[in-house]
Specification:
This protein is of the alpha/beta class. It folds into three domains: 64 residues, lambda repressor-like DNA-binding domains (434 Repressor (Amino-terminal Domain), Orthogonal Bundle); 122 residues, Rossmann fold (3-Layer(aba) Sandwich), CATH 3.40.50.2300; 127 residues, Response regulator (Rossmann fold, 3-Layer(aba) Sandwich), CATH 3.40.50. Helices cover 42% and strands 17% of the residues. The strands form four sheets. The protein has a six-stranded parallel beta sheet, with helices on both faces. A four-stranded parallel beta sheet has the order 9-8-10-11. A two-stranded antiparallel sheet has the order 1-2. β8, α9 and β9 form a beta-alpha-beta unit. The chain is elongated, with a radius of gyration of 25 Å.
Amino acid sequence: MPQSSSRGWQRPSIYDVARRAGVSHMTVSRVMNGHPNIRESTRARVLQAIEEMNYTPSSIARALATRRARRIGVLIDGPVQNGPNNTLRALEKAAREVGYAVSAFSIGDDDASQLDTGVMELVTQGVDALCVIAPRESSLDLLRQQTTGLPTIVIKAEADPSWHTVGVDQREGARLAVRHLIGLGHRTIAHLAGPMDWLDARERAEGWRECLAEAGLSEGPYIVGDWTSDFGFGVAQSHDLGETTAIFAANDQIALGVVHGLHKRGIRVPDDISVVGFDDLSDARHFLPPLTTVRQDFADLGELALQQIIAAIEGETDPTHDMIQPRLVVRESTAAVSA
């Protein structure tokens, strides 16, 4: 146990561990650095002393014993976006709770080729597995060319024979949004889509199309842009929306821009046009009006991803796919179509 004195709690030193194990402090250092020329009985005695005295976190001691780093390398595509950022934070939290650390490498929105550099950097850190968050098609094409020998999991909505995958059902989330609008009597529903290189953007657009087709409705205006509020604002300010009575935005930032742009034109939300977003940002309930949106449970996604990563590290080699269902959150930005 940690030492105590008149000065209060004291963290044990390498010398305390050495005394407990009956070895020199240099031997303790060699054990901690994985030196091969250490008798197993000595190594076991040092590791036991490390555990008993809490000299280092128990996860590190276990890593020394198992020859694993207990570290997961994460490639995060578009780190400034809400979904990728929240997924990374959720994965980090879930990993900490089971004694794993996370090393992240961010790939800029305009340079998927950074993936090569990211993979090399993470592999040289000795990670046990790789995880790719919010991939674009271009980054996945590059990832397929990599041969790291490490278990790899990709956060994406569709199964992929190349990797373990886990994701939120993006297509169903879009269908929830569009079904809600159809149920309110809307018949001309526009979609402001994210960049089509992003797999999530593609899935949301397909869900919009499928739901309209099932209801026997024609597609409303379809405009592809980026993930920003400026995109939504620009469309709402400058485009002729014709008979559109509802807009499904590919994320909440776009929806925020749409509401602002419509307001500047004197078009009321939801009296004249209803608006639905996607993600359920923490501030979405404070938009004016509060935003109807589709919620992704990033905490559950992080835990599920970690479960798959650990299973892969422990030898589960056949690719698996797990899906989390999104949920529609109805607020005040949608209403029955006006007569």
